[in-house]
Amino acid sequence: MSADTPTDTETGSAPGTGTDAGGGVDRRETRGFLGRLRASPFLSDLLSNRLAVVGLAIILAAVVVAVYARFGYDLNALTQSRLGTEVADRTPPGWIGPAAWNQHLFGTDAAARDIYKRCLFGAWLALKFGTITVSVSTVLGVSLGIIAAYYGDLTDNVVMRTMDVLLAFPSLLLALALVAIFPRELGLWRAVVALTLVYTPRFARVVRGAALTVLEDEYVDATVALGAADPRILARHVLPNTLAPVTVQSTLNFGLAIIDLAALSFLGFGAQAGTPSWGLMLSRGVDNGLLTGKWWLSFFPGLLLAVTVLGFNLLGDGMRDALDPRMREAID
Amino acid sequence: MASLRFVVKRLLLLVPVLFGVATLVFAILHLAPGDPARIIAGQRASTEQVNQVRRELGLTRPLYIQYLDFLTDAARFDFGKSYSISQGAPVRGVIADRLPVTFELAIFGQLAGIFIGLPLGVLSAVKQDSMTDHLTRVGALSGISIPIFWSGPLLILLFATYLGVLPTSGRIESTLFLPTHWEFMGRQLPLTGMITVDTLLLGRFDAFVSAARHLLMPSLVIGIYSTALISRMMRSSMLEVVRQDYMRTARAKGQGARITVMKHGFRNALIPVVTIIGIQFGTLLGGAVLTETVFGINGMGLTIVRAIGASDYPVVQGTVLTFALLFTLVTLVVDITYGYLDPRIQQ
Lengths: 332, 347
Description:
The complex is a heterodimer.
Chain A: H1 20-23, H2 33-39, H3 41-47, H4 50-72, H5 75-79, H6 115-151, H7 153-167, H8 171-179, H9 188-216, H10 218-225, H11 230-266, H12 278-289, H13 296-322, H14 325-328
Helix pairs in contact in A: 3-13, 4-6, 4-13, 6-7, 6-9, 6-11, 6-13, 7-9, 8-9, 9-11, 11-12, 11-13, 12-13
Chain B: H1 2-31, H2 36-41, H3 47-57, H4 63-75, H5 91-126, H6 131-145, H7 148-162, E1 181-184, E2 187-190, H8 195-201, H9 205-242, H10 245-252, H11 257-279, H12 281-295, H13 300-309, H14 313-341
Antiparallel strand pairs in B: 1-2
């Protein structure tokens, strides 16, 4: 219903980006995917934006950490209580405690589990479920958006009015209400399904807007006149032209997905008890650590969560700045 | 009149959306697992008793009758009675109690965002590409990245647990009791439910101070996101305005730089910022759910979380629909305001 809401048009360029580079970009006729990438003004703009590069570095580091934790740690040891073998609620070393520096770097929780390892494993869970949520909602949103734009009329109305209904809820609330449908045993998967439905309309709206612009171009009419079939037009002409805003939207949405997944776990509607997810660890931190001053229960999982999300936001922001200004208007 | 037609058109478009919203809420809760009759009757009730409750709730009727009933009831804002979390109380009353609490939190959060975000945005734009600018921009991106359920606990740990200068949770000192009505010109009037306003109406300054101290951290936490968005928007909007001809004209007339920025720049740059303040109202409502959970504030957000946890469907239906209605109305007002400020939008 608010397809015409104003969008954030960042006009300032980051240090060193200098818009002057845009006019003088060498537009050689280059062959091959890599060659085209290298010649693209978008990529050179993006890579000369220091903040975006920092964001990319954070994301890569998070991926390395996540994969390391996934294959290096035993999930059972991180999920089950270690009471009896380890000390519960141990302060991080170097913080009023006698523990050696390499023992439980981030301390231990109420069930004597190592918070450092749990935090690293949390990166795996966040990235895995974040990736699934964002990719499925992107694919769904892109398909719906393109179909709505291309077929127009009734199809457009049915699809977009349905999206309007989904957009009429504050996102976290819709996710909460949807989560209620699924049985508890599904754990984080029910949060994934709920958030996928919450995010899909955003992609559909962005893509529909971009696709409508493309469809007005004359070459599409020419392709139709040449007798191209619908699937060919959609796949060869419409889809590629919507990829840029979709990529930016996905990147920015990735940060949001990580926060929202953690939020649902935090509220008790996501990961099952014992799972080393950041949201659940923060929830335990509030239950067990706030009044007793056990700051490390909350501090470390939240720090990793915030830094990872910041990585996606820095990169997404840089991508938006590097994009064609016309495209910027399509993304909120 | 063009703008009146625009408003009417937007209002008419609202009807199918709200209809869809109500249908979705009905569908969600009928798909949800758990038997409402069993929840009300209790675990130890016999099958006979449960069936009795089921008949009383009208759950034995055909689904389409239940749906039509739900729609008519929803239109009258009647969602029945709470199953468990406020057992037996009408949902309408529960909402009336809790909505002002959330409203107050949202207003103070938004005020925090405006009073911190606007100056930061202006500063950032005026000193473009300076150290201040970079710090503000990175700060704003960090503000969007920090979840409420992290910043909240950290503030509580610092200011309540370690320094002991602010209370941990709740809305007011538990030893203070407030009456339910206040007297104005000899008449008994109901209170607003917003505790800072109520304590002032009652002239209880001790209670007001307590309420304000309780509200300080939650408003800051919920306001971080607004602060970040507003400062970003203000910066880019200000940079755009500074390039306009009338700014150069004002300076050419000999007007000082500071006055030009404040008088011409700031006021014009505010237009898009005003709309962003409205647009992110929905985020604020979502933020209220988390903030109220962290700080133990009994508003709409905490009520929704508890109701979903306890399968208290009438309360879930009522609160979720209320939030959706509020959100839709605010979006509508923003659209209309924007159309008014920028007539090109109307076409």
